[in-house]
Design a protein that fits this description.
The protein is an alpha/beta fold and about 350 residues long. The chain has helices spanning about 15-20, 30-45, 60-70, 85-95, 115-125, 145-155, 215-220, 235-250, 255-270, 295-305, 330-345; strands at about 55, 80-85, 100-105, 130-135, 135, 140, 160, 180-185, 195-200, 275-280, 285-290, 310-315, 320-325. The protein folds into two domains: about 15-250, Aspartate Aminotransferase, domain 2, CATH 3.40.640; about 255-345, Aspartate Aminotransferase, domain 1 (Alpha-Beta Complex), CATH 3.90.1150.10. Helix 1 (about 15-20) packs antiparallel against helix 8 (about 235-250). The two termini are about 20 Å apart.
C-alpha cells in the first residue's frame, strides 16, 4: 500500500530483505536440516498444532491447496466446499480437475456464512471433508472457523482450511478448532518473499497414495537426516521464514495480530464518510475490499504505483472494486496517506 508495499508482497523488514542478498546455502546439509526443523517446530507452535507435521513446498499457495487435495482426499470422500469468492472457487476448480465427488455451499460475496445453512448442507450431503477459506481474500470476508470446527467435530468431518491470508493476521488454533489440515503461504501474514507454501497436518492426519509426482507429501515428510526435502527448495524464502517465525515467537503472535487489527479499524473509521462501501460483513484484519461507483480504479492504481504506493485493483473489466491491505510494516501515517489519496481521487 505504501512504498514497496502491496497486499500480496508486504513491506519487508530490512533484515528480511538482506537475507535475500545472501549466498544461498546448499540444502543437503545438517545446517539446513536444522533450520528446516526449527521452522517446523515454530510453525506448529504458533499455529497451535501439537504433534503435527509440515510439508514445505516450493510453490504458491495454490500449490499447497492442490497438494492438500491430492494427498488427503480420495475418490470415496464426499466433499463440501464453502464457496464465498475467488478462492472458494479455487477449491472448486481443483476438485473439479481431479473429478472428485463434491457439493458446493455458496455464500454471497462478502456475506457472513449462516451456520444453520451449513448444518442443513451437512445433514443433506453427509460430507466426509469440508473445504473452506478462513478469510476469503477476494472479499476480505472472515468466516467463523471456530464454530465451523465445532460442527465438523460433531459430525465427524475432516476440516481442511486455506489460511493463506489469515495466519499471522487472525487468531488461529488448529487443535482447539478441530482443523485436520491447513495450507499457508509466505507472502501474506508471514511477510516474506512469495514462492514458498506449507501444508500443515494435524497429529492424526492420514496421507493417501498420491498420483502427483512433485506434490506427493510422503516425499516431503520422510525422516532422512541427510536429505530433508526431495527437491531443490526455495532456500531464500525458507531462511526468511525462519527469521520471521523467530520474531513472531519472540514478540508474541497475538501482539502482531493486535497491531494489524488496530490499523484495520483505523482505516475503516477514516473511510466511513467516503462514498465507498466495505464488501465484507465481517471483514478480516488482512485488508478491506471496497466497492466504488468509479470505473477508473485501474487508472488510480497505475498512477499511484509510479510513486511506489500500491493497493489491489480487483474489479475486473468493470473496475469497481479495490482492496487495501493492512498487513506488513505499516504505520498510522501510512493509513492516513492512502486514505488521503482515496479522498483526492473521489473528488475528481
Amino acid at each position: 500500500m505504501i512504498k514497496n508495499y502491496t497486499a500480496a508482497v508486504p513491506n519487508y523488514s530490512y533484515k528480511v530483505r538482506k537475507i535475500a542478498e545472501e549466498q544461498p546455502a546448499y540444502f543437503r546439509t545438517f545446517t539446513f536440516n536444522n533450520l528446516l526443523n526449527n521452522c517446523k517446530k515454530l510453525l506448529l507452535k504458533l499455529i497451535g498444532c501439537k504433534g503435527g507435521n509440515v510439508a514445505f513446498l516450493t510453490a504458491s499457495g495454490t500449490g499447497a491447496m492442490n497438494a492438500a487435495i491430492t494427498n488427503l482426499v480420495t475418490k470415496k470422500d464426499k466433499i463440501l466446499i464453502i464457496n464465498g469468492g475467488t478462492f472458494g472457487q479455487r477449491w472448486v476448480d481443483i476438485c473439479s480437475y481431479y473429478k472428485l465427488n463434491y457439493k458446493i455451499l455458496s455464500v454471497e460475496f462478502g456475506k457472513d456464512l449462516a451456520l444453520n445453512s451449513l448444518v442443513k448442507s451437512i445433514q443433506k450431503n453427509k460430507p466426509t471433508i469440508v473445504l473452506i477459506q478462513h478469510n476469503e481474500t477476494s472479499a476480505m470476508q472472515l468466516f467463523p472457523l471456530k464454530e465451523i470446527g465445532e460442527l465438523c467435530k460433531t459430525y465427524k468431518i475432516k476440516l481442511i482450511v486455506d489460511a493463506i491470508s489469515s495466519f499471522g493476521i487472525e487468531e488461529y488454533k488448529m487443535d482447539n478448532w478441530n482443523i485436520y489440515a491447513t495450507v499457508i503461504s509466505t507472502n501474506k501474514g508471514v511477510g516474506t518473499y512469495p514462492g514458498l507454501s506449507c501444508v500443515i497436518l494435524s497429529k492424526g492426519a492420514k496421507l493417501y497414495p498420491c498420483s502427483d509426482y512433485y506434490f506427493d507429501l510422503n516425499k516431503y515428510l520422510q525422516d532422512n537426516k541427510d536429505i530433508s526435502l526431495p527437491f531443490t527448495p526455495n532456500i531464500i524464502s525458507l531462511k526468511q521464514l525462519n527469521y520471521q517465525l523467530e520474531y513472531f515467537n519472540r514478540v508474541g503472535i497475538q501482539s502482531i495480530i493486535k497491531k494489524i487489527n488496530k490499523r484495520a479499524i483505523l482505516f475503516r473509521k477514516l473511510i466511513n464518510p467516503l462514498p465507498l462501501k466495505i464488501a465484507a460483513e465481517t471483514p478480516s484484519n488482512c485488508g478491506t475490499t471496497l466497492y466504488t461507483e468509479r470505473t477508473d480504479v485501474k487508472d488510480l492504481f497505475e498512477n499511484l504505483q509510479k510513486r511506489d504506493i500500491y493497493f489491489t485493483p480487483a474489479g475486473g473489466n468493470a473496475g469497481k472494486k479495490l482492496i487495501v491491505s493492512h498487513i506488513g510494516e505499516q504505520t498510522n501515517s501510512d493509513v492516513y496517506l492512502i486514505v488521503g489519496e482515496l479522498k483526492k481521487w473521489l473528488k475528481k
